[in-house]
């Protein structure tokens, strides 16, 4: 599914909206601002033109960047978002509608919508207590100046790993000082290489959606996503009972990461589990499923800036994905027997 702003911010965990305080405030205030920033999606109504780019982290070549252009409209108080893509060509007819219950990926040309539960579609880790407290234990957030983005003055916030967490990714946010909206986000992997950016090129805060704006186009056929994903679960005996197999848990996880929930993924009668580990900013994913055909284990593409390590153990196929240093993933795998 194409990544909307709401989905992207959820994946980045702390990169949503509302911002308060002067740009020159002391760094100790940044964490309180980030706590309020998590509430942005519930506060803002806007229409924004956006560009998102995935960069090749190994060559850092702009020529190899994958670019998406889209218009994003959000009515925060009602929890509704509409995103329409203008590029690349394969997404031109794609529209994504979200509310607090469902996500619809709409093919406007074919008039077909793929429906998914919003709760099941969320990739936001589930942790006890404050995410900001967890972030603060592993990262340092500071104000790094100001810059004008889309004609708006923004405060630049940098979130860098603490010295004893070297190898973790970093994030840079450009926050509209008056309206609280993040107008640019830069993400780097554990090697410090830029892997993706999202930038707002124009924004209209006076936008008010007309009646029916967030509704499906007339005549659209709705189909349920054949891949089902549960809400967050604990890794206990009940999880094994629902899966029909016992997940293998790593005995080693990188410093600062905590278990952040398990999700059962099902399709055509088959089931897999997605285990998540989170450090306040970055997520490590572990996927496990019964082995269907024993392929060769090794490194596999893990998405922009992320590493993926796949292997088999007994009757299970396993894949680790994370934007940390690859040797940390190897150590996790080796701790699983």
Written account of the structure:
- This protein is mostly beta strands and 337 residues long.
- The protein folds into 2 domains: 5-224, Lipoprotein localisation LolA/LolB/LppX (outer membrane lipoprotein receptor (LolB), chain A); 228-334, MucB/RseB, C-terminal domain (Phosphorylase Kinase, domain 1), CATH 3.30.200.
- It is built from 6 helices and 19 strands.
- It has helices at residues 5-12, 30-37, 118-121, 131-138, 237-243, 326-334; strands at 45-54, 66-75, 80-87, 94-98, 102-107, 112-117, 139-149, 152-161, 170-176, 182-188, 194-204, 221-224, 228-229, 258-267, 270-278, 283-290, 298-301, 307-313, 316-322.
- Strands 7-8-9-10-11-1-2-3-4-5-6-12 form a 12-stranded mixed β-sheet. It has a 7-stranded antiparallel β-sheet with strand order 13-14-15-16-19-18-17, covered by helices on one side.
- Helix 2 packs across helix 4.
- The longest helix has 9 residues, at 326-334.
- The radius of gyration is 20 Å and the shape is globular.
- The chain starts with a helix and ends with a helix.
Structure at a glance:
With about 325 residues, the protein is mainly beta. It folds into 2 domains: about 5-225, Clam (outer membrane lipoprotein receptor (LolB), chain A); about 230-335, Phosphorylase Kinase, domain 1 (2-Layer Sandwich). It is built from 6 helices and 19 strands.
């Amino acid at each position: 599914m194409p990544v909307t702003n709401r989905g992207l911010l959820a994946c980045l965990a702390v990169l949503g909206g509302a911002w308060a305080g002067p740009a020159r405030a002391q760094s100790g205030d940044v964490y309180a601002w980030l706590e309020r920033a998590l509430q942005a999606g519930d506060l803002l109504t806007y229409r924004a033109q956006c560009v998102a780019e995935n960069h090749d982290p190994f060559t850092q070549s702009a020529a190899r960047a994958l670019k998406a252009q889209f218009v994003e409209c959000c009515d925060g108080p009602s929890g509704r978002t509409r995103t329409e893509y203008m590029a690349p060509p394969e997404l031109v007819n794609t529209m994504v509608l979200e509310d607090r219950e469902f996500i619809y990926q709409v093919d406007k040309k074919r008039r077909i919508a793929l429906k998914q539960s919003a709760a099941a579609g969320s990739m936001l880790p589930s942790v006890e207590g404050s995410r900001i407290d967890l972030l603060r234990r592993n990262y340092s957030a500071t104000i790094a100046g100001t810059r004008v983005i889309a004609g708006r003055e923004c405060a630049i916030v940098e979130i860098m790993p603490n010295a004893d967490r070297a190898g973790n990714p970093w994030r840079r946010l450009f926050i509209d000082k008056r309206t609280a909206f993040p107008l640019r986000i830069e993400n780097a992997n554990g090697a410090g290489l830029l892997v993706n950016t999202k930038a707002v090129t124009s924004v209209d805060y006076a936008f008010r959606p007309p009646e029916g704006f967030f509704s499906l186009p007339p005549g659209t056929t709705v189909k349920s996503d054949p891949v089902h994903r549960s809400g967050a679960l604990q890794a206990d005996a009940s999880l094994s009972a629902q899966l029909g197999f016992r997940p293998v848990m790593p005995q080693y996880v990188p410093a600062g990461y905590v278990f952040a929930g398990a999700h059962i993924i099902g399709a055509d009668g088959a089931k897999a589990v997605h285990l998540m580990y989170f450090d306040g900013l970055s997520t490590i994913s572990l996927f496990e499923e019964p082995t269907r055909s024993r392929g060769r284990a090794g490194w596999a593409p893990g998405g922009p800036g992320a590493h993926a390590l796949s292997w088999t153990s007994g009757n299970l196929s396993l894949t680790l994905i994370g934007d940390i240093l690859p040797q940390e993933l190897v150590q996790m795998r080796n701790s699983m027997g």
